[in-house]
Each structure stands twice: as C-alpha cells, then as structure tokens.
Input
Amino acid sequence: MNKKVLVTVAGGVASAYAEPGIDVVILDLDDSKVTHPSEMIPIHTSFQPLMKFAGVEDDWIISDDGRVSDAYYAVLGGSHVA
Output
C-alpha cells in the first residue's frame, strides 16, 4: 500500500508533487461548499482516516472507485510528469 497524503486547501490553488509510491489528494474546501454532490469526483475510501483526522470527513464524498492521486510525480533531475 502506498503512503497517503491529504492536502486541504481553503482559498488559492494547490499543486502537489510526490515521489512515485506516495498518493496525494487535494481537498479544496471552497469547492466543497459550492459544488453539487452529483458533480463531485469522489476521493478514494483509503483517505477516509486522514479526512477524519483533519475534521473534513463530511466535506467531500468518498467512494471505492474515487480518485487516488492529484500529484505530479517527482522524477530524477527535478522535472515532473503529469
């Protein structure tokens, strides 16, 4: 199982970079307030413990087929691949 990182953002735009083997999901609290639940892309259930720890478990929908990573992956030489 990959290590998990949950990034919560209120205001602004977040970008995340990670090494391969680290799953990063960005939860935008502003979007969660204005996006209809039917239009939300769910977050994978493996992030549920982090969401609970951050106090945002009710701010975004989760699903077994939800998104797993919003990160660009760090590659040797400092470049990234989308």
Observations:
- The chain has a mean pLDDT of 88.
